[in-house]
């Protein structure tokens, strides 16, 4: 079954946007995944096609109406097995393990909020799982949804040229990735670390592991602690 995502948005014209180029775009064109962007406003019923209203209890801004959004979700007919997500700064943080979980499933229905957010009752009534892409506030959920979709799509079978490149990169084992080098052999007086051109695969693997551990320990003590803070070697690239 093809991985398929349905995005509910007030701005369907934003899609596929960046998802239509490069790795994700080629995979979309070749049918490795499917994207449907649906206009929430199509479910508005009044003559002004309004989707938002003032917050109950007062305060600034507008809130996406529960009835309109629920109708849009129902009309999308996602089926019972697909995760239903709401992009939201107060949601569960998007991590590589959540991405992997979503990539293994049938593909999510994703609601993109706007304004001050969405009426709480639709979150509960339609069982939306809130997902955040970081501790900052975007003006809408579309860019957050694109980040989530892009991260999932690159893990789908056949999308990445070499499947191994997904297994060895940042977060795959709770570690940041080791530093990468390519030509030229020397750049502005900086050579490539000798071990990487030694041809000794075991030593290269050991060096990369030590660098990944050291970088994680210094840059992301939270990730390091979550792995149990295993002993690592000091890195040349540690900052
Ligand atoms: N009033 C909300 C709050 O303080 O939590 C922020 C609403 S924001 C201006 C509008 C929409 O952008 C949200 O409903 C959500 O869909 C999306 N959004 C903003 N920041 C996000 C983030 N860090 N992760 C995921 N979605 C985000």
Automatic annotation (TrEMBL):
GO terms for cellular component: cytosol
Region Disordered, residue ranges: 219-239
Reaction(s) catalysed (UniProt annotation): guanosine(37) in tRNA + S-adenosyl-L-methionine = N(1)-methylguanosine(37) in tRNA + S-adenosyl-L-homocysteine + H(+)
Predominant location category: cytoplasm
Molecular function (Gene Ontology), one example: tRNA (guanine(37)-N1)-methyltransferase activity
GO biological process: tRNA N1-guanine methylation
Domain called tRNA methyltransferase TRMD/TRM10-type: residue spans: 5-225
EC number: 2.1.1.228
Residues forming coiled coils: none
Matches recorded under Pfam families: tRNA_m1G_MT (PF01746)
InterPro entries: Alpha/beta_knot_MTases, tRNA_m1G_MeTrfase_C_sf, tRNA_m1G_MeTrfase_TrmD, tRNA_m1G_MTases_N, tRNA_MeTrfase_TRMD/TRM10
Subcellular location: Cytoplasm
Keyword entries, A-Z: Cytoplasm, Methyltransferase, S-adenosyl-L-methionine, Transferase, tRNA processing
Annotated binding of S-adenosyl-L-methionine, by residue: 113, 133-138
Family in the record: Belongs to the RNA methyltransferase TrmD family.
UniProt subunit comment: Homodimer.
Function: Specifically methylates guanosine-37 in various tRNAs.
Name of protein: tRNA (guanine-N(1)-)-methyltransferase
Source species of the chain: Bradyrhizobium archetypum
């Amino acid at each position: 079954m093809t991985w398929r995502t349905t995005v509910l948005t007030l701005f369907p014209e934003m899609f596929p946007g960046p998802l239509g180029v490069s790795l994700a775009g080629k995979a979309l064109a070749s049918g490795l995944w499917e994207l449907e962007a649906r206009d929430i406003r199509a479910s508005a019923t009044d003559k002004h096609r309004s989707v938002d209203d003032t917050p109950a209890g007062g305060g600034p801004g507008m809130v996406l109406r529960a009835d309109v959004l629920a109708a849009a979700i129902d009309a999308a007919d996602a089926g019972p097995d697909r995760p239903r997500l709401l992009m939201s700064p107060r949601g569960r943080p998007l991590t590589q393990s959540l991405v992997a979980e979503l990539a293994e499933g049938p593909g999510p229905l994703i609601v993109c909020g706007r304004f001050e957010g969405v009426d709480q009752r639709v979150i509960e009534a339609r069982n939306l799982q809130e997902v955040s892409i970081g501790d900052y506030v975007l003006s809408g959920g579309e860019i957050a949804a694109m980040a989530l979709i892009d991260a999932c799509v690159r893990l789908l079978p056949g999308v990445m040229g070499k499947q191994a490149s997904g297994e060895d990169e940042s977060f795959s084992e709770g570690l940041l990735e080791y530093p990468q080098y390519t030509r030229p052999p020397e750049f502005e007086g900086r050579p490539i670390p000798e071990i990487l051109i030694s041809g000794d695969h075991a030593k290269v693997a050991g060096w990369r592991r030590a660098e990944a551990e050291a970088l994680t320990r210094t840059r992301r003590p939270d990730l390091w602690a979550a792995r149990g803070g295993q002993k690592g070697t000091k890195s040349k690239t540690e900052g």
